# Entry
Amino acid sequence: MSFSQYFKASSYCLIGSGFAAIVATRAVGWLFVLLFAAVFIGSWFIDTTRLRRRIPNWILNCLALAYLPILVADYRLMSRSFMAAVLHLFLFTAAVKLLTLSKDRDFLLLYLISFAQLLAASTLTIDFAFVLCLAVFLFSGISTLILFEMRRSNARIRRDVRPQPLVVSKKLQGTGLELFSPFPAGLFSATVAGISLFIMACAVPIFLLLPRVTFGLYRPPSRNPQFVSGFSERVELGQIGDVKQSDAVVMRVKTDKPPSEIPPDLKWRGIAFDHYDGRAWSRSDNARHAVPVQGWYYKVEESAQGTDWIQQTFFVEALSTNVVFAMRKALAVSRDVGLLQRDSAESLYTAPYRSKKLRYTVISDAVSPDPGLISGRPIISPAIRRMYLQIPSLDPRIADLAERSTQKAPGSYAKARMLEQYLRSNYGYSLALRGSPKNKDPLAAFLFDVREGHCEYFASAMAIMLRQIGVPARLVNGFRAGEYNGIGKNWTVRKYHAHSWVEAYFPPYGWIEFDPTPPEPQHSRSALTSWLSNLADALDLWWWESVVNYDSLRQYRVLAAFRDKTDMFRQNAKDFLSRMGAGIQKALALSQFPDAPFSTGGRWDFWIPAAVVAILLVSRSFRRRILGRTKRVLYRNNARAVADSIYREALALLADRGLKRHPEQTPMEFALSLGRHPAAVSFLELTRLYYAARYGPVDASPSPSSAEALLRLLRESLRRPNAACCTFTTGC
Amino acid sequence: MLRYSKASKSPSDRPENTGREDYPRRVFPFSFAITREGALYISFIFLLSLAAINSGNNLLYIILAALLSAIIVSGIVSRNTLKQVSLSLQMPENVFVGEKVSIKVSIKNLKRIFSSFSIRVQDPDICRKRPYFHGIRKLLARKHVAGSETQTDDKAVLRQAAYFPILRPGETRAEYTVQSFPRRGLFRLDDFWISTGFPFGFFRRGQRIGAKGEVFVYPSIQEISSFFHLLPFLPGRLEGSHVGAGENLFSIRKYQEAESARIIDWKATAKTGALMAREFAREEENQFCLILDTRLRPPAGASGQNQFEKAVSLAASIAAHFLKEGAEMEFLTPHEHIPLGSGMDHLYRILKSLAVVDYDVNPVPGFLDSRSPDSFTGEMGLKQLREILSGKVFKIIITSKSRGSFPSALWRSSHVVFFDEL
# Structure
């Protein structure tokens, strides 16, 4: 692949990634998308330079002016959105430029438009698709910018002179790109990939550390909330069946315990209803009260009955309801839910008309009731009796059925369990609503005629039948646990997980859950689909949790965790070095010399091994220097050994710079072969001293200090930038 | 070749010619400059950071983090690109003013793993220019610094930059650039300046590479007037010619026994009736001394300097012509004497001297004054000087002295070219 081909491909990739980012936001009309895509693909095959030459400037200017009224019409009549109109303008400009690409500034404008599209997409979406577009944009942007810089530098040089490489491909002769022949596309791609990864790696700590201070002058655009029925103030019997048709994700939940330690039949409680009028459930008391705050949490309950608490973190999509879901029995809710209120039925609510995603944490008491502690005839307060024993005018067969099905059970709790089992065993599950919605008594129709229905019927039947036998009961709407995603370690709750169940009042536990609905048919998927779905879901959750919702509180937590880890590492390192010091002491048997400075003592236990580790970790050249000096100190009375040590160190310094002595060369031959190298003079002198020390009379050996000075000079001359490298020769 | 201790500097080093202060050489081994695109990039980062902080949008923070990270990575990568790079320069040994020479610039990437990209090789004297901040410097200095680039450029050996877009690990690439030197003189190469805008072109990082080398740019050689071709043969110009084994007829005399029959002049023999022989002159006519009087008569302004350059060029042209013809010549200036010699080596010795010769604004006492050569303070031997200035040696003198100021003995044995004739 030639340079120009690579440059064009890279530029198109960059332009395409910006376009893909705004398509992913779904803020651009499909007509514009298709038109631009056609121009984008078509311009690849057209000779745009020739086309540009044929089109006079006045036509382009007229085209630009002609779009202005279209822009106004787009904003006012068509898309009715300023952002959409601006995005359409970007696409129009980019399309015109793609067809008339000829100069560097055309490319620059396209790159800027692509970047602007990416910025616009960042304000319109928070989906994981954005990060994919960003990654492609980053890679192609780096590649394009590098190539663009090379192109411009080449053009600048060619303005003054036309340098010629020694070998030029015939294809490139006269193109101005002779210097780029041959172009190593593979190597260049690998370099760009390396730089991209490096940038991403450096960007992570920067992202984590950038201060999060929001002045709030700008609000991000709100999302269209998902409609979920069954959580309003009045719920018609059968309404929840509508919700169960859809597989849209409603929320994701993470728990601090694995599924094996979570109580079975986990549910996310939403809203409870106490009043049944024969067709619909509602709440008799709509009053809501603020929940008191304590620290970072809202304190929902004053005390807990058990010690088995479970922490759940909810990631709720933008829903049409402001109900706060939680596992029963919620003790505390984190303050990032925003406003929190509760009603008399222990349902929790946040601020109304929520149109953004919500993230909050709940701590629940997952106490399991002990039937032995529940009295057969519990004492129930008048308020609970009034609200939760209300029965409308119903078919008398319902009361009769309730008595018959529970007559054998001792005690009210046992009756409730028996009734639950009875409904599960004797009725079928179906989402189809048979019978006219205007049936006078839908419950009677369910219990005696149809004999099948969905969870709302089962729960309503049980709640009413419990009330018939004197047990206070209420209907609860919420969601089943959902599907557990092993990759993201979270529960994915979809609309079809919507569920109704019953809560019955049994002191001392209070409200206990009952679920009379038989098992629902599972939504089956292939293993691969399931795995891919889980992966996409986990990425989406991670993206939202760790990136989109990263705020100052989380930043503080990250830094605190980093500090803790650093402290732990330091402590571990200290312990390791101490153990190593003890081991060294033992090996050297220094403890036999109590007066020796290294014999005992915590100080030396640490510093000896620390010094050993430090020496091992420092650079090879520094290590060589230290060891060389040590050797010369030890052999300071032996001039030949000192000279030998200095000479070897000098050789090693030169070898590091690529100047290696060949085995067949004598020291003097090697010194002379350095020629005009900046280190040649000092090394030649050093070689002479070496000769004198090695082969001359012992009493006439040169002083080590002069050799050390020469070694220092040599090191300095090599330290100068690329000092080992320049030759200047004449005589072509 | 004798070189006097008080050799004049070449114009490229002459502080008076610059007319302004020289820019100091860089103190630090590398430089880091922001390009125009880089300034725009940084401005944009600033705006984006405001938007991100204002909105709290983490996606903007991601983009901002990536942009900031790109700056850090850019610095590291550009440093790595310039590391472990070796350069070599090859150019012709003999270079003349204005002549196009082809220079081969070779670069080798000594790294084993990493490639180098977008390397520009320049002479540091060329890239002292600061177009970006030049206006600000002018404003701050309050001095007229226009044209300083020209003076700075004049010192450069590598006058055209070389560019290497890609260097794979261990690869060597070479390029030819064609350039010419605008002035004669000694051009020293102390280092190269390599720079790169890699990766993004937002910043330009440069670094010095130590080097040692020098180039003598000789004055231009032109065709000399045909009059000069005849100079040694003008009658009456020479005194005390000697009999020798040359080709030119010196006299006709009686034939002596044992002489070669080839020298018998049969015409004269027929006329006189006795055997007559031809006697030839010694080839002293092909020996002469070229003298360049470097004294510039005041006012030594631009026109005087211009004349001096023409004089130097003429001297070079004369030396080239006659030495190519096989003559023997010596060369003399107030500060230098090159003894008699011939051949191309001798020519280049003279050209080297002419490359660096500079004019004197003050008179050199005793030079070209055979009446009082004792006052000559140069290191040359007086005997040697007297002999040159005597009538025995034919001289071609190029001088700015006025007509009539020459001693007659000197005048008779010389051909004088005055500066104002050039």
